[in-house]
Specification:
Blueprint (H helix, E strand, L loop, with lengths): L1 H34 L5 E9 L4 E10 L6 E9 L8 E6 L13 E10 L2 E8 L2 E5 L2 E14 L4 E16 L2 E19 L9 E7 L1 E4 L2 E14 L4 E15 L2 H4 L3 E16 H6 L2 H7 L1 E12 L2 E11 L4 E9 L3 H4 L14 E3 L2 E9 L6 E3 L2 E2 L7
Antiparallel strand pairs: 1-2, 2-3, 3-4, 4-5, 5-6, 6-8, 7-8, 8-9, 9-10, 10-11, 10-12, 11-13, 12-13, 13-14, 14-15, 15-16, 16-17, 17-18, 18-20, 19-20, 20-21, 21-22
Amino acid sequence: MKKLFLIPFFIIFCFIVQVLYTGYSNEKIFNNFVENQNPDYKILNPIFNKGFLHSQASFIIEDKRNLGLSFKFHFVFNNNYFSNYVVQGTLSNPFKFLDEGLKNQQLAQFSIKPEQNDFNLSIQFQDINLSNEGGDTLLKNASIEILMDRDLKAKNILLNIDKIELAQFYTKFSMQNFIYKQNFDYPILLSSLMHLKEGLEEISFNSFALNNNKIDSFYNKNTFHFNDKNKLKIHFQGKAHNITLDTNSKLYQNIDFDKIEFDIIWDEITKNSYNKFDIDSLMKEGLNLKIIDLIVYKNKQNIDINGSAFVSEKNNKALIQIFSTEEPDKIFSWGKFFGGLNQYFTKNEDKFIMNFNYDSNATPQLKINGNQFSHIDLN
């Protein structure tokens, strides 16, 4: 009987031990994160107040790129290992123009929950519906989910936005059902999410509009692979439906396509230049593109494009072949403003073909269908 009385004390003892251990682990995780150095931002004023069942913490993140952004994070850690969540918290608003549209000056709420052998970081942004002299801003049901391993390294990421609208002066942008997914080949530090890593990326949306330019739907799958430590290869594959390009000011009419399918490789990219998106560095090294397939559909006809192109400060090259199932002038009526497109194609059985060869360092620079090309007839 005496042993039975010891059971409750043993259970209480075990509970206290796991609470203390979990609290210690939470503090260690927090300290490891704030001590991590990152070239894009700095962490200021880290505070951790350790409690028994709950611990509270906070810090401020400021960018290092002179954008003037400052985010304040507030955390509530749960020191009970068997709880539904590990940590909950809020993210303050760093954008002054959103002050009127956000409650309690909070941009988002977040939580980390255990998921089998991993953790799931969920961030839910506040809805925004703001209209003032600066323009209109609408953000509806935007969220981010990041699956992390036990070392809090990201395995994949999912961004979802039901609707976003931005309008200012003569510019208007809108997008619906935007989804961004990325699966990493190897787990990465959260501080490295903005840097390029090997893996698979998917982007899709149901509608897009930028002024009078519109796309009804879009899907894109990108594969990132390093040929060595510093050279990157990106494989783009995807499709878009019902595309309208506002070219009325130049061609006196808009250009529209029923569908576009693409399969393109961008190779030999320097890792650091891409991470920084340094256009000058990218152009010095050159953009090396391989068009495996680019198909444009219009009026139940299609134009098929493949080839390669290299663009740099010192030299530009392109070797492209274009196939059309119909006379190009019948597919693209705007070609008449350039003297018609048929003149640049040769007919071979049931196809119209153009072989385009350009080399800025060669003489002649441009050849079409093997013939030197000196001018475009604009009459």
